């Protein structure tokens, strides 16, 4: 599904990813862990096509297509979803209107019928329950006046509605209390299937207790320095990141 | 014509003879040059006919008055007043007010009796038409003690005409007034509008100014908070494209203590359009416990669009809470990326954000037909920037 080959990328002329290689197959959940500054968020942003991030060399294929050549919206329509670390507030753009426009853009791209207002509301209500978001939120501006936890749950709600093939969670767990963490994990678990892949980017292991990964990778200095199964996350929690960084030097 | 009216016209003539047309050398006219207007030999249209207009809100407004080129062509015989205009507008120092007063034509002359609450809204529709035709509508709205009313002025038209309107609003003790001024003139027309609002004790006035039309528009709102505890909210939205020049000037005079003024003006400018916001707030020595907030935010959609923002505070006592600010910027990258990252195309994402910027002013208007009219006008003004939706919730 996702093939990242020897990727070098950065922002404002500063190189952050230095030869990252990763392969994600359909149905797999991969966790990317690493200390601050290791390039975790850069990876997420490069995959989603955030402005200012520049790829200097390497390749990213999504279902065999060159992802880096696509504008941001096309990546989304192809089925890549980024749950953002800091979802922005957009006053004046109605949440439900925005999400319906997004879903219909995605459906049109896939050759599916667009949903009318009623069909969309039905779908939205169902998914809202999944993340325990109150319907009142839907008629506000996008993320307007949402608490930190509500913003993260809104990201997962949008993900559930858009039904992406590859979901990238960029530190979705940061700043969440345990209840919100559980809700977020359940939302993602509900999406898990043979056709869906998830890339969980996180600093801590706690989200991975609820959202159990198939693979764990440790990112340091812009490259994956260690890969393993879910037990690697626990090992990291006990030994800290110094352990892998030292291991890399040795 | 009454003796009072004759007298005021004479005074206005004298004042205009002294003042002359304003030039950019005058500080208040630094950014706007009326020279193109002075080259035209303007005439009044003495043979106006009733005209159909889709800006009419007949059936939705409680009462509607329609004026064509400054002459009343239809209107309700309701809330008529015997008071004469002229007491509140500044004829001596404001040349365009003097010009209006010397050529004063029809307009609403309304008085809401004390304690009366008017249901719905009153609509004043001004239709301009004809190249080289000028009009000088003059409105007077007197709102009695504890009375309540909503008044909408709409300016539309076709051709290269010139509207020079003056509206005086007097809000008595405890009166509540919601005033809308929708300037959607022909894109070839010239428009100057002066609004004077005089508030007595504990009066509560909201005045909303929409400036979308005209090749050149100058919109002035003057507020005198002349009674303790009076409050004013000024909302403004100006949106221009092509070579439109839209100049907004507001003056809020805090005369008495415990008054409050809240002001938010937003500008959206595309192509070679130029916008001006000149907002002045005066707090007099007696106006202790004044609360005043003024904000001007501008969105530039092209490299060659210009906006001049000049907020000014003049505070003459130290027991006040005032803040003001202004911003000029482009569409922000973060929200744009967010919308696109969900699959929304770049053009549609931009139009959502432009509309969102303007909608802050539109959405807090209380009259749905007015909100609808403004949305329609915005979409017509900037069809590439704001493609009309295929329906659905906004």
Q: What's the topology here?
A:
The complex is a heterodimer of chains A (250) and B (394).
Chain A: E1 2-11, E2 14-24, E3 29-33, H1 40-48, E4 53-62, E5 65-66, H2 72-78, E6 80-83, E7 90-94, H3 95-110, H4 117-130, E8 141-142, H5 148-162, E9 166-170, H6 178-191, E10 197-202, H7 207-210, E11 215-220, E12 223-228, H8 231-239, H9 241-249
Parallel strand pairs in A: 3-10, 3-11, 6-9, 9-10
Antiparallel strand pairs in A: 1-2, 1-4, 4-5, 7-8, 11-12
Chain B: H1 3-19, H2 35-38, E1 63-68, E2 71-75, H3 95-102, E3 109-112, E4 122-129, E5 134-135, E6 138-143, E7 148-158, E8 162-171, E9 176-183, E10 190-199, E11 204-211, E12 216-225, E13 231-240, E14 245-254, E15 260-269, E16 274-283, E17 290-300, E18 306-315, E19 320-329, H4 333-340, H5 346-363, H6 368-381
Parallel strand pairs in B: 1-4, 3-6, 4-7, 5-8, 6-8, 7-9, 8-10, 9-11, 10-12, 11-13, 12-14, 13-15, 14-16, 15-17, 16-18, 17-19
Antiparallel strand pairs in B: 1-2
């Amino acid at each position: 599904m996702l093939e990242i080959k020897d990727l070098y990328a950065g922002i404002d002329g500063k190189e952050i990813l230095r030869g990252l290689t990763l392969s994600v197959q359909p149905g797999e959940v991969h966790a990317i862990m690493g200390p601050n500054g290791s390039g975790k968020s850069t990876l997420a942003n490069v995959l989603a096509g955030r402005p200012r991030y520049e790829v200097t060399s390497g390749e990213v294929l999504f279902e065999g297509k060159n992802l880096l050549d696509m504008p941001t919206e096309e990546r989304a329509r192809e089925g890549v979803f980024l749950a953002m670390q800091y979802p922005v507030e957009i006053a004046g753009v109605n949440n439900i209107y925005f999400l319906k426009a997004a879903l219909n853009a995605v459906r049109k791209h896939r050759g599916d019928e667009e949903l009318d207002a009623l069909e969309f509301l039905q779908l939205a209500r169902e998914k809202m329950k999944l993340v325990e978001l109150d319907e009142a939120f839907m008629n506000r501006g996008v993320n307007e006046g949402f608490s930190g936890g509500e913003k993260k749950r809104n990201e997962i709600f949008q993900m559930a509605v858009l039904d992406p093939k590859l979901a990238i969670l960029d530190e979705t767990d940061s700043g969440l209390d345990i209840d919100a963490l559980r809700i977020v994990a359940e939302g993602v678990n509900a999406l898990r299937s043979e056709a869906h892949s998830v890339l969980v980017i996180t600093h801590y292991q706690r989200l991975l207790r609820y959202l159990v990964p198939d693979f764990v990778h440790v990112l340091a200095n812009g490259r994956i320095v260690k890969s393993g199964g879910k037990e690697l996350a626990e090992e990291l929690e006990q030994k800290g990141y110094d352990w892998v960084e030292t291991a890399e030097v040795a | 014509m009454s003796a009072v009216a004759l007298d005021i016209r004479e005074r206005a003539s004298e004042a205009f003879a002294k003042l002359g047309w304003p030039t950019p050398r005058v500080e208040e006219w630094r950014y706007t040059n009326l020279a193109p207007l002075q080259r035209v030999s303007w005439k009044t249209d003495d043979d106006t006919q009733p005209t159909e207009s889709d800006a009419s809100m007949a059936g939705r407004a409680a009462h509607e008055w329609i004026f064509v080129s400054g002459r009343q062509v239809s209107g309700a015989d309701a809330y008529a007043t015997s008071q004469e205009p002229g007491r509140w507008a500044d004829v001596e120092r404001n040349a365009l007010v003097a010009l209006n007063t010397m050529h004063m034509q029809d307009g609403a002359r309304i008085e809401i009796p004390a304690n009366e609450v008017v249901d719905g809204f009153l609509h004043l529709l001004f239709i301009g038409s004809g190249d080289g035709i000028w009009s000088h509508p003059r409105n007077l709205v007197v709102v009695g003690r504890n009375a309540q009313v909503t008044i909408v002025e709409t300016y539309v038209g076709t051709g290269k005409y010139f509207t020079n309107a003056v509206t005086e609003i007097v809000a008595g003790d405890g009166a509540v007034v919601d005033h809308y001024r929708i300037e959607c003139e022909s894109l070839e027309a010239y428009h100057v509008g002066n609004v004077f609002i005089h508030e007595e004790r504990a009066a509560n006035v909201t005045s909303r100014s929409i400036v979308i039309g005209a090749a050149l528009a100058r919109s002035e709102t003057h507020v005198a908070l002349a009674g303790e505890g009076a409050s004013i909210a000024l909302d403004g939205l100006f949106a221009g494209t092509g070579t439109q020049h839209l100049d907004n000037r507001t003056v809020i005079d805090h005369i008495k203590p415990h008054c409050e003024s809240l002001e938010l003006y937003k500008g959206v400018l595309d192509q070679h359009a130029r916008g001006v916001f000149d907002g002045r707030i005066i707090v007099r020595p007696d106006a202790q416990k004044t609360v005043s907030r003024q904000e001007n935010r501008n969105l530039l959609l092209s490299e060659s669009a210009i906006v001049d923002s000049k907020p000014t505070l003049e505070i003459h006592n130290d027991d006040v809470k005032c803040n003001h600010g202004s911003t000029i910027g482009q569409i922000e990258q973060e929200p744009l990326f967010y919308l696109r990252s969900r699959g929304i195309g770049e053009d549609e994402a931009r139009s959502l954000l432009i509309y969102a910027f303007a909608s802050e002013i539109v959405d807090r208007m209380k009259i749905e037909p007015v909100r609808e009219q403004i949305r329609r006008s915005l979409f017509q003004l900037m069809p590439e920037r704001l493609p009309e939706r295929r329906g659905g919730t906004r």
